[in-house]
Amino acid sequence: MSADPGRPAPLLAAEGVTKRLPEGVTLVSDITLTVTGGEFVAITGPSGSGKSSLLYLLGLLDRPTSGRILLEGTDTALLAPPDLAALRLARLGFVFQFHFLLPEFSALDNVLIPIRRRGALKPAAARARALALLGALGLAEAAEKLPEQLSGGMRQRVAIARALANDPVLLMADEPTGNLDTKNAAAVFDIFAKLAAEEGRAVLVVTHDADLARRATRRIHLVDGRIVSDETNAPG
Ligand SMILES: Nc1ncnc2c1ncn2[C@@H]1O[C@H](COP(=O)(O)OP(=O)(O)OP(=O)(O)O)[C@@H](O)[C@H]1O
Ligand SMILES: [Mg+2]
Predict the structure, then answer these.
(1) Within a domain: residue 4?
(2) Does a structural domain hold residue 228?
(3) d(CA 208, ligand 1 centre) in Å
């Protein structure tokens, strides 16, 4: 794709991304896609089709064996591990199936941890940001509670607040509703839809659930590590 001076680079671009393990297993093959701000992309596919592997590659948690991944125009293959880690911390947010909140810390502290790690905000501003995120996710009352004092749906919303802590351009989630009931799962997808539509972030979510995938603006379906369809969902 040639650079068009009138158009910014896509947020995320994968060009022929392939990941092979040394023992010869191919996790994903020749993945080419671009994602722009405001898109809410659901990645679907059977178990073992490479959804998590693809998300790890696109989230810069793993490196392709061939092809390249550009984040906001930067070829991430050229970055040394510390620069890659800094880029992830500043620009990407992750949510997993299990919340991975630190059990001995309050919801507020769990959200503050990545903000402190990045070190771009003074303590008062960091606290204000974390409280605002919790408030926006309906968790104002939960700020001082420990994860074990919260419901599963609330914990996953704290995990989303934590993923948003450093104001990422791209939010990625791997089966974030896998441990939730239908109502809480729908609430999580509504949050993602809003983050994309109203805040212009790109959201990439792996899900098994076809009903939830229909709430995204775009659906990418994988089979055997390859994209077999990439479609825009009809609005509504
Ligand atoms: N480290 C590894 N070593 C060997 N094989 C692996 C490794 N990681 C993944 N695989 C295999 O690669 C394929 C893709 O795995 P991946 O976890 O990306 O699939 P998935 O679509 O996320 O599946 P699920 O829906 O079950 O989470 C699977 O066949 C898996 O068994
Ligand atoms: Mg998986």
Answers:
(1) no
(2) yes
(3) 14
Q: Which are the contacts of 4, defined by CB distance < 8 A and separation ≥ 6? A: none
User: How many domains is the chain built from?
Assistant: 1
Strands 26-35 and 12-20, how do they pair?
A: antiparallel
Average pLDDT value for residue range 206-229: 95
- Domain limits for position 38: 12-232
Specify the residue with its C-alpha closest to ligand 1, atom 27: 47
At 1 the pLDDT is 46
Note the pTM of the prediction, 2 decimals. 0.92
CA of 50 to the centre of ligand 2 (A): 7
* CATH number, domain with residue 192: 3.40.50.300
Residue 53 lies in a domain: yes
Atom of ligand 1 nearest to the CA of 56: 18
- Only one residue has tokens 């390859």, namely 226
Amino acid symbol at 170: L
Q: Name the token pair of 202.
A: 């790109």
**Would you say residue 185 lies in a domain?**
yes
Give residue ranges with CB within 6 A of ligand 1. Answer: 21, 25, 27, 45, 47-53
